[in-house]
Amino acid sequence: MKVYIDGCEVELVQGDITEQETEAIVNAANEELIPGGGVDGAIHRKGGPSILEEIRSKYKRCPTGEAVITKGGNLKAKYVIHTVGPIYKDGKSGEPELLKKAYQSALKLALDYGLNSVAFPALSTGAYGYPIKEAAEIALKTVCDFLKKHKAPQKIVFVLWKEEHFQIFAETLKSLISSK
Ligand code: AR6
Description:
Blueprint: E1 2-5, E2 8-14, E3 24-28, H1 38-47, H2 50-58, E4 67-71, E5 79-83, H3 95-112, E6 117-120, H4 132-150, E7 155-160, H5 163-178
Helix pairs in contact: 3-4, 4-5
The structure holds ligand AR6.
Ligand AR6 binds next to helix 1.
C-alpha cells in the first residue's frame, strides 16, 4: 500500500527490514545500545560488527525517545538510525509521547543527514509490548505530520514483520488519509 503526503511517499510492506534498500533503516534499539533480539538482533547480525564498533566509539547510551546514527556496515542501507521506543507499562506512563518522540528523533536525524528514504519497523511492538493498534496510530500520524511540515524525507517505508501488523497499519493509514 502506498500513499502520498504533500508529495512524499509513505509505503507499507510486509517483510524483513534488513533487506530494505532505503538510504537508512531504523533500528528498534534499547537505551544501553546493546544488541538484543528482534529487529536489533537482525540488523547487527546482517550488518556485521562495524555497527557496534561505531556505536561504542561515539555513543554511551541513548535515552528513550532519542536516536543516534551509524553507517550500515554490510546492509544494503547506507545508514542505521538507532532509536529507542518506550517499554509499554499501562499506556498512562508517558508511552504515547515517548513513542512519538522516538519516531520524530529518527526523522530529524534523517533530515540532518539529508536522507531521501528511510524504512521503519513498528517500534516498541515486539519485546517492548506496545499494543499494535495504538502503536500504528502514533507511528503513522507522527510520520505524516512530519512530512507535511518538512516535505522530507521523500520516501518512508514501514516494514511490518507480521501479516496481522501489516493489516492493522493498512487500516490505520486508510482511516488517517480519509479523515483529512
Ligand atoms: N524486520 C521488520 N520487523 C521486524 C523484524 C525484521 N527483521 N524482526 C522483528 N520485527 P522488537 P521493540 C518486528 O522486539 O519492541 C530488542 O531486544 C516485531 O514483530 O524488535 O522496540 C532491542 O535490543 C515487532 O512488531 O523491538 C530492545 O531491547 C517490531 O519489529 C528491544 O528489543 C519491534 O519488535 C526493543 O523492543
